[in-house]
Write a structure and sequence with these properties.
Layout lengths: L14 E12 L6 E13 L5 E5 L11 E3 L1 H7 L1 E2 L1 H27 L3 H14 L4 H13 L3 H11 L11 H13 L3 H14 L4 H13 L3 H14 L4 H12 L8 H10 L32
Antiparallel strand pairs: 1-2, 1-5, 2-3, 3-4
Helix pairs in contact: 2-3, 2-4, 3-4, 4-5, 4-6, 6-7, 7-8, 8-9, 9-10, 10-11
């Protein structure tokens, strides 16, 4: 939609179920026959006019990746299914949202088993639901059930939709929860997964550095802090973090002079390159307080 076009009013936006058909050949030779495969899609037009479509699963719930289609494509390649949306899809979507909302409400009250029940109910109809996965994962972390939380981590780390801006506070809370449960490697892998989709996020580098610090991986922790400082020159959180590590002799000897110059200047030294982000062994961590509270991604 061009900047000259008016944005659609809320009541005029497209929202509902459409279907598409694909003709396929089945069999070979004289047994060849043609079949028509029908696919249902949930269509939702946002405030900017972009039309998003998302496939429905077997429980009539929109799931999986979204893609943008033009108005012309929607008109020419898809057919509206208003009755199907009203009688089947919309009620299921409401049921799913209610289960997740109730799960969140129970979890916020510390009622973890009731929360787990509601999240599990939601996941039965949509196993890729981002909020339900995060919610049940946080519930397991709260109860210290590391094995169950690890299973959720493995599911979430494969979901691109878990790392979109709308879910940023959720994935950050979950990453912090992994670290606080001493699941350092999972926390680092999880945040690195987020970096693949948001490589310019300095806060993600800071959160990775926190997990690496507690896992006694000091050299890569410093490298991620420098990467954050490159993205956000003069970042006060990074400088405090580096100063804390420098005072406790946790900075690798080969980087110590450069870090000293960074701390003196309050930014990366001229011409200084960020080292390669590779893990390295480290000495034992002294029993001292963490440098800073968790930094929101």
């Amino acid at each position: 939609m061009s900047s000259m076009q008016e944005q659609p009013k809320h009541e005029d936006r497209i929202r509902g179920v459409f279907s598409s058909q694909e003709v396929r050949k089945v069999g070979t030779g004289t047994t060849t026959r043609r079949t028509v495969q029908k696919t249902f899609w949930f269509v939702n037009q946002d405030a900017d006019g972009a039309i998003m479509i998302q496939a429905l699963n077997s429980n009539y719930i929109p799931t999986g990746p979204k893609k943008i289609v033009s108005m012309d494509d929607l008109i020419n390649a898809y057919s509206p299914e208003p009755e199907f949306y009203t009688t089947s899809v919309f009620p299921k979507m409401q049921e799913l949202d209610q289960a997740v909302d109730q799960g969140d409400e129970h979890r916020n009250k510390g009622e973890t088993f009731s929360a787990e029940y509601q999240y599990a109910k939601a996941l039965k109809v949509d196993e890729e639901n981002v909020r339900a996965n995060f919610g049940i994962g946080m519930t397991y972390l709260t109860r210290g059930e590391v094995d169950k939380a690890d299973n959720i981590f493995k599911r979430l780390v494969d979901l691109d939709t878990a790392f979109t801006p709308e879910h940023k506070h959720l994935f950050n809370d979950f990453g912090i929860g992994l670290r606080k449960n001493k699941m350092y490697k999972q926390s680092v892998e999880y945040y690195n997964r987020a970096l693949k989709l948001s490589s310019e996020d300095d806060n993600l580098h800071i959160n990775i550095a926190r997990a690496l610090l507690e896992d006694q991986q000091y050299p890569p922790a410093v490298e991620h802090l420098l990467a954050a400082l490159k993205l956000s020159p003069g970042n006060e959180t990074v400088l405090k973090f580096l100063g804390w590590m420098d005072r406790r002799k946790l900075v690798p000897p080969d980087l110590a002079p450069s870090i000293g110059e960074v701390l003196r200047l309050g930014r990366l030294a001229p011409g200084m390159d960020v080292p390669c982000l590779t893990p390295a062994p480290a000495p034992e961590l002294a029993s001292e307080p963490a440098p800073e509270p968790d930094h929101p991604a």
